[in-house]
Queue: 4 jobs
Job 1
Amino acid sequence: MRVVPLLYEDVTISFMADQKILEKIIALAKRRGFVYPSSEIYGGYASVYDYGPRGVELKNNVKKAWWKEMVQQRTDIVGLDSAIFMHPKTWEASGHVEGFSDPLVECKKCNHRFRSDHLEELGKTNCPDCSGDLTEEKNFNLLVEAKMGVTDEDKSKAYLRGETCQGIYLNFQNVLNSTRQKIPFGIGQIGKAFRNEITPKNFIFRTREFEQMEMQFFIPPDKKIAKETFAYWKEQRLNWYLNLGIDSKKLRFRAHNEDEKAHYALAAEDIEYDTPFGGWKEFEGVHNRGDWDLSRHSQYSGKKLGYLEPDGTRITPWVIETSAGVDRAILMFLLDAYKEDKDKKRTYLSLHKSLVPVQVAVFPLLGNKPELINKAKEVFDSLAKQGFIVEWDQRGNIGKRYFSQDEIGTPCCVTVDFDTLEKGEVTVRDRDTAIQEKVNLDKLITYLKI
Ligand code: ATP
């Protein structure tokens, strides 16, 4: 394989230097089919988003990376997929009906609503939009209510789950009875959660419908074991982001102050990422929930939820939880991967290879030459058969095709040209360096797998 001078030139784009990074990413996400605002044809639906063709692949890859590491590659964690609807008592027992709230204030002049803890962080005592006076703080419950039942008289209140882990607690005994697990062990789950957020904002960072990847690790009720397990899971979770390419300088842990801990937490630390929209923000939480959830569900259901030690002692296990947001993780990966190559006048996403929505793109050099198209189709088919996620593009000039694959984050583009027909060589171009290499077709798969 030899490096060749640029065979197919990149197109020129103009940079709007003053445009903010998040705005640029939102525009790119829409332009390239990652994320669209929901219900756009009806004028949009505030802070709800849909994942497009590239977004759904990225999202599935993020979930796959989590599931593989947190469930499939471990002997001490099993998976679960519990329903979104649960018996409404679940949310009384969990403390969410009573205590799952954010402090709300409203501007007396423009009626905009804010979380008072967020205003405190900004040092604001008046409305940040119009400087108007603010109302007294009220607690605003975040659970999203639904009505279940066929007729009006039948209908009863239900909740869309506010966190996925409650389904894990309700199934704790089922999992224990149907697997060979013994304490310590964990249950992992990925799924939708819903919260009536007061101020959903910052794209997919804070929305009312989102996905969580949560793992509850059940341990003996012991402070020392809890402390060690907590430290262990902090390290594991931080490494997950680092191993997927996140810049270590942009990640940190922050322990919760006593007054910000959730009602269930004995200890809580957030994995924070340094964002371009207000600096350090929470992307994942590691919590010691003690025996709060299992004890409360035992109390409210009247069923004993616990664990019999080999010596016959009955214990209520404690729980160390890792709770990550799928959408927030996607935002972190996009923020971290977004690169502007000013010399080559291009934008690209340097996403980790295991997360990219497209692994390789195949182009015939010219879209009107059947012999090139046929050969390129052969290359496409052979790569697809090998399990690569391949994209085809024969529109426009090669520079524009590179430009669009760079923005999707495709690590390699393969161009079939006249050298392919004559010498069996394709041109492979690398996303991060924009270097083009000639590669023999019989070495292509090995080359791409490295
Ligand atoms: P915040 O303080 O930002 O409201 P939280 O402390 O309420 O978050 P947790 O209840 O610990 O969040 O939820 C665990 C994870 O779920 C968060 O770290 C985040 O990744 C994700 N998450 C929570 N709320 C939202 C939301 N409204 N939109 C998107 N992701 C969310």
Job 2
Amino acid sequence: MSFHPLRIPVLLSIAALATGLAAPVRAAEPTPPSTAPAFQLPPLPYAPDALEPYVSAKTLGFHHGKHHQAYVDNLNKLVAGTPWAGRSLEQIVVDTAGVADATALFNNAGQVWNHTFFWQGMKARGGGKPTGRLLERIEKSFGSFDAFKEAFVAAAVGQFGSGWAWLVLDGDALKIVKTANADTPLAHGQTALLTCDVWEHAYYLDYQNRRKDFVAAFLDHLVNWEFVASRLK
Ligand code: MN3
């Protein structure tokens, strides 16, 4: 199943509409080019307090409403008036990966994609063990489900500085990888199945420096295994 997080038709915001109504209209002038943003912040797939007590509403509010929003806003500024504005988020990530003069574009597009994906991999009363074919594949790839958990935590804790821990499909193989900053499996030809954000903003309000406790809570109480399984098909 492909993942299209952000190609949502852009609607005028109430604020923009109000501004438009307030401005005098001069009929003789040509219509200015659209200034509507190319990308929008997708809503969370659950209420901001849905992941409590493992991720507080305060953390989720800041993380989605401020951090994720800022990446969307920065991306919109970077693509405005350029050919990038007409491309999909996925295309921008893939096309700017490793391109020296497109670092800012890659970083913001990557972070928009990574966060949109991160939210979908969690749910209220999630976590625990997957079932069926997904569990079989995890056991086959890592030896046991506990060995998978250990390796995922090790990747998340071992990511020096900001970044992400991932379960990915690489060819036919399930793998655990970690990426730094905005880097993403999408840029490496891998299919992301699950991710945990290990930037400090993801957990510091709730766990301070205890990243390992956050990752353990993520695996035990938050992972949406149905979403992960849907990505395998
Ligand atoms: Mn984040």
Job 3
Amino acid sequence: MSPTSQTTPASVPPSVFTLPHTAQLEALYTIIRDKTTSRGDFLFYSDRIIRLLVEEGLNHLPVVPKTVETPTGATYEGVGFEGHICGVSILRAGEAMEAGLREVCRSVRIGKILIQRDEETALPKLFYAKLPQDIAHRYVLLLDPMLATGGSAMKAVEVLMEHGVPEDRIIFINLISSPEGLKSFCTKYPALRVITGWIDEGLNEKAYIVPGLGDFGERRYCE
Ligand code: URA
């Protein structure tokens, strides 16, 4: 297969948007998937992908017509951003995507949600949420690098919706998705857009994405 030949499978839900699979993007993914990649390189190259993903996420926000005057004295009929945004990271791996969002959206507000497995029920449980007070009036870029089973992401969306954020104002951004996770997530939240860099083959018996990149948090935070 040539580096640019992967196409989005027909089974992918219509609310899912992948980055264009250019040779450049595939080279970035090859580096971060490689188990011999150093932590420094993992940080650098995953940050490059995160930035591309955030830019793509912003493409899904509404704009309104806006006319400006240029230094030549001419007018330019363009567009301006409409509406406010915020980021919400799913701890801990999602925190790694915050800097990429801040680079593109200066002084953006960022909330945090901590979800962990409830040892009694084995279901995802909310442990902590700190969200902007006016989140119900914002578009939310939800950040989590790996969409595996989708359990944490679905719980996070539930929390956002309980705080008044409409489903169609949430844009979920991740680096790698499993087809299983996408199916469950998009079936439950069809109006929510998902921006993913790559859709992998599936999940293994430990619910890791394959081929994947291993544990994103370990690769990013531990030497
Ligand atoms: N989280 C990770 O970090 N990696 C996976 O493969 C799945 C979930």
Job 4
Amino acid sequence: GVVGFKAATEVGAGTAEAAENRILVFVRLRPMSRKEEAGSRSCVKIVNKKEVYLTEYASENDYLRLKRVRGRHFCFDSAFPDSTTQAEIYNTSTADLVEGVLQGRNGTVFCYGATGAGKTYTMLGTMESPGVMVLAIKDLFSKVRQRSYDGNHSIQLSYLEIYNETVRDLLSPGRPLHLREDKQGTVAAGLTQYRAYSTDEVMKLLQQGNKNRTTEPTRVNETSSRSHAILQVIVEYRFMDGVSIVTRVGKLSLIDLAGSERALATDQRTQRSIEGANINRSLLALSNCINALVEGKKHIPYRNSKLTQLLKDSLGGSCNTVMIANISPSNLTFGETQNTLHWADRAKEIKTKALTIANEEVLNVPDSETDQAKLLLELQKE
Ligand code: ADP
Ligand code: MG
């Protein structure tokens, strides 16, 4: 027949871009809350567009006694002060990665930080100030509509949670899902794929999904700080490249990680402490993978947790990865902020694999008009 698929094309092989592919790391400082303003002071300063300064002294008294400020500077791809808008965060940290997804390269963005540091605000945001998840989908819609050759495109969403090493569908809550390996990497079997037709519906869908996130038994109205939420977006469209029709598929993963603060294992016999240990397991596994990747180890322990299994092709694979580290300015959370900055600093060293293959199929358009018409008919049937 006229419809014949060629092998995937080489993209970026041997270019500077392919050679230098590392995780981009951004830090976002959130504003002081009213409560913090009353009972604490700031211990973080954004020095310039890339630099964060964390002061070491614990109190005003220490400062007076030491007569000098001892602290530490950290440098990142960007350091965002508390006045930064959601759009600025998206444009600087994620817009290029989303463009990459439209070129057929997978992309992953994750927010890391302690509970209350601003991860969910950054990822989901509010109706008035939508975050990275919504802005990314908006961007995908507008670009794909412009570029698609025959109006054919699809944007599919799935939203899942990892809580206590159990994977659940946030769009259709029910039984836990099993992870299995397939050609695309690790996937959750039976996960809902929701086809989105406009950006407007997405915020509501995700807010509803967030309501399905596991809540702590003691704080029924709050989302658990121990659950990881992962939004996966699969975008597919067709475009004309010279005389060929190219079908391109890209995968974008947007991840709101569980709070990175140390889980308090108060009582070994209670469910809570087991949950704590498991959260440690996922985040600990993440930090172990980061260490192994930074040290260039052959064996990376992805299989140690659900989170790292799912992130496997994002951390070490041929994927563009962005980490947004969220921090609070208050000296009450000095230890957590130091911890977050430490891991963010380390994540800068991770090199991801050089990119060679884009996820696409090329279709040669036949010369004769009748064959072209046949081809279009076949495409429309799909
Ligand atoms: P996390 O998800 O890391 O636990 P949240 O995103 O829920 O933290 O943020 C904690 C609180 O701070 C929320 O009330 C949120 O609205 C607010 N907040 C976080 N970041 C910002 C920001 N950049 N601007 C304004 N408010 C913020
Ligand atoms: Mg949150």
